[in-house]
Amino acid sequence: MHDDHEEYLTTILELFRNEPRGMSISDISREIGLNRNSVSKYVNMLTIAGKVEMKAVGPAKVYFLSERVPISAMIEFSSDAIVLLDDQLRIVNANDQYLSLTEAAKQDILGEKIQGSTLPILSTDLFLSSIPKFREREQRIPDYIQTIGGEERSFTIKILPAAFEGGNAGYAVIIEETTERRAAEETIRSALSEKEALLSELHLRIKNNLQLIASLINLQMMESSDDHVNAALRETQNRIISLSIVHEHLYARSMIAEVDIGEYLTLLISELGRSFELPAGAITLSVMDEGIHLSTDRAIALGLITNELITIGIGSEGRPEIRIAISRSGDEHILSILAGAGHHKPEGLSINIVRRLVKRELQGEFEIIPDGWEVRFP
Hints:
Blueprint: H1 2-18, H2 25-32, H3 36-48, E1 52-57, E2 60-65, H4 71-74, E3 81-86, E4 91-94, H5 96-102, H6 106-109, H7 125-130, E5 139-148, E6 151-163, E7 169-177, H8 179-223, H9 227-253, E8 258-260, H10 261-275, E9 283-287, E10 293-295, H11 296-314, E11 322-329, E12 332-338, H12 349-360, E13 365-369, E14 372-377
Parallel strand pairs: 9-11
Antiparallel strand pairs: 1-2, 3-4, 3-7, 5-6, 6-7, 8-10, 11-12, 12-14, 13-14
């Protein structure tokens, strides 16, 4: 069977020698009476071996004899360890990188069958079970770990069906060492994990400090009997709470730089309802698009904007019914808050805060609409 393979490879090479203008897969298939899929695999083997190269002529692919250096000579120019095996899995060549890796002498391993040998990598069950059947596509073994010389090392291995000088079939084994890269990646992962832990602790401490300030303001409100003073203190307290919730959310979700806006606004609305002692359902939130995330800075700005507008709406006469919706339209985010008569209050500090936050932090637009407000930002 292997003789048939080598005969086909030799025959195809001879066709190329006799037709310097090149041949397509269909041309070769007709000449030797073999189906196109089989011809394509043989030609691919010759291409990998450097014996044949392809050129596009219009929509067609035409193959020619290659003028490149043969694979047996080319392996010495590679920085990877390379071993060439024949179809019986005997070593026919190995470059200096492989010899250095295994501390083997070339004369000792040439002609050796890898099955039953003690050669690193090549003799392992994982490698032997990964060798592709004849004419199959290349096989790849990523993150291959083996102890060599008492040291654990990692490799990425490619096993490519190939054809060598004279049309002999076999395999090219390319062994790329990834030990240093894996160590660098692990160092980066470890450093990132440490920074995430530190940042998470920072969010926790900021949240606790902000909640402490909010509690102190609450004590001050309990000491005051002036309704106007208490109203101003409550507004300040709610602004602090909106900041605190962002850091609580980031800490709870182990997130570094992004806030899930749906979850954040839900927490914020719950806290504001508790602060203003509102009945259930007084404030509702509709998240029209799942997975809306903003950076920490933009989320804080959006939270403060929402807090200010809810505060205005709650300040209106009668039972407050505030409807909040957050959605996304293309690259634009839209926050709408409907609060009935509340939005007709004269512009004061809260509206000025909103306008500045929308412009400076969100680079967006703020608009007063019937029964409420709308914020659009990228």
